[in-house]
Amino acid sequence: MDEDALEYHRTDPPGKIEIATTKPTNTQRDLSLAYSPGVAAPCQEIDADAGEAYQYTTKGNLVGVISDGSAVLGLGDIGAQASKPVMEGKGVLFKRFADIDVFDIELDLDDTDAFVESVAAMEPTFGGINLEDIAAPDCFEIEERLRERLSIPVFHDDQHGTAIISGAALLNAVEISGKDLTDIEVTFAGAGAAAVATAEFYVSLGVRREHITMCDIDGLLTTERAESGDLDEYSRQFARDLPEGDLADAMRGADVFVGLSAGGIVSQEMVRSMADDPIIFAMANPDPEIGYEEAKAARDDTVIMATGRSDYPNQVNNVLGFPFIFRGALDVRATEINEEMKVAAATALADLATQDVPDSVVKAYGDQPLQFGPDYIIPKPLDARVLFEVAPAVARAAIDSGAARIECDIDEYVERLEARLGKSREMMRVVLNKAKADPKRIALAEGTDETIVRAASQIVERGIAEPVLIGDADEVRRTAANLGLEFEPTVVDPESGDYEAYTDHLYERRKRNGITRREAESMIRNDTDYFGSVMVDRGDADAMLTGLTNHYPSALRPPLQVIGTADDAEYAAGVYMLTFKNRVLFVADATVNQAPNEDVLEEVTRHTADLARRFDVEPRAALLSYSDFGSVDNQGTRKPREAARRLREDPTVEFPVDGEMQADTAVVEEMLTGTYEFTDLEEPANVLVFPNLEAGNIGYKLLQRLGGADAIGPMLVGMDEPVHVLQRGDEVKDIVNLAAVATVDAQDDGP
């Protein structure tokens, strides 16, 4: 590990962070705007009103990670210079999890007054200050003085990070064990910065101060020790009127043990001495006060165990807190991070742990089961939802408590946060909002599948649609119960209901295609794709999703046979929406038509342009080839050329379209408008129609894998009623997204 870490850090360029520009710097004009003479304008605005710094500079998204290196986790007092890799790492976490920029600053100072003065002088630079790895008790005084002096948030993560994350874990652990915060007895091993701050935070959550017993290396913190001057002013607040004793005495009868000290100091016998169903947070790193397996094996009742390690359940990891707390504080220009904001963060984390866990998170942690209970009481650090839960909760608490300089609509704020994580979330938010405005009834053909059941639960929770799960009703409800989902699924069971009318409907549709009535009855009873297709075709559902457990062609066949294409369409097509950082592309056809002629290409272009508009994107279509506007003339290039000509000459087509053209011509503005000034496209295309299925499928997958695009789809266009065919292996979020698309499709098809 040491060698790997050294290689990781020294690989050119050394370190882990860099400065990147956020504005164009390609021309002389760009540079004159960035620096002299243009930069004078924002300087004058800020001189007139200091608050304008948030409008014209990075201040509002810039945090200073500041340390003297006197208490680096696991390494101790290694000094400012040696602590720099840790501070850079903190900057990486801020950026990765909350898109916050960081300057790491290591101050070679051992005087508290000098440290405070140095940090205070940097207030104009930063929107917030994250103090890091500063030894106790100086860290308490430094934070306290800076909070009083500065009008930006100051947060010592070593104190409050562990407090907030373990506080969230405590809220859920107490609920699971059937205990009450006001009644529990809590024992702390350790009396340093993290322990004192955590104990204070537990009091804010509802634990009684007189129920907290704290130990340090010399034993219990007693009033006798406090009166003798043996304790500093911060740990003295948790001294109790008790006889002298050690950690074993303190743990006897305790409901909760909180370890913030050293590894291996707790025995199984000490665990056995605790109250029923004990809660153990052994957070010393890398070796906890007692090992996970050892603590679990010590008793026969439920032991809820958390550590600071990632290889065991319930990791208390500060990265669940500081990025998102600062995100919420910065976005309302908070003057501080107060107790209300910290409690809001802990409560939001605790609530999130009770929700269904995304497939991407489960996969990231080795496909281990993640369901609310003793082994899952806090979310995982790689759960992207933490940003959308904690930051808004902190922002709301800042507004309500008077710490915010500006107010915001929390729902709109969540949308802005989603946009930070990628264009796909921003684009899907458009469709999700439309779906919630008028939810439709959606048939889920593979209703007994666990992933489908989880998706249905989220669809209901988010108000996107009214899902109808097709399959064995008992199995669906049993699956929902086993998953701990608190929703009552709507189920239709083809095998138990009276669906003679469905049989008649299918028979009428397919009797001249070789299907007997007996076969139609069997298909309705035994094939949920046919059942769902009839359900939609009869109007008993507004849309349908299928395909999660079948090959795409097999899943597509029933809806094509029963529902068919729209009145104004002859062909269906599969479209992917690919989102990049600053660009969105709709790519067709990637799933249906193998060798389309000009008729198919023309129609697919129309369908895809209509789809783009559902995402509030004005389409600009390019029909692709390996030829530019006749540079190669053969049967293959003539098809997209002819389709483009028809579309250009059709007065009902209200979007720019051109072709045939090469892919780079379509998407590179300099090539498109510079070389081919005659083109009808004045800007790069955002609808790309490929000449055949091979090219479309290969193209979208290369863009997704090598171009870093997020893919949403495939979305089936051209059908008479909304049907979307999932891909095998799609995750819950993919199903929820397509359910939203299907709902918007159904809204457009409605009266």
TrEMBL record:
Cofactor(s) it depends on: Mg(2+); Mn(2+)
Keyword Transcription: no
Superkingdom of source: Archaea
Keywords for the protein's UniProt record, in alphabetical order: Metal-binding, Multifunctional enzyme, Oxidoreductase
A GO molecular function held by the record: oxidoreductase activity, acting on the CH-OH group of donors, NAD or NADP as acceptor
Family statement: In the N-terminal section; belongs to the malic enzymes family. In the C-terminal section; belongs to the phosphate acetyltransferase and butyryltransferase family.
Protein's recorded name: NADP-dependent malic enzyme
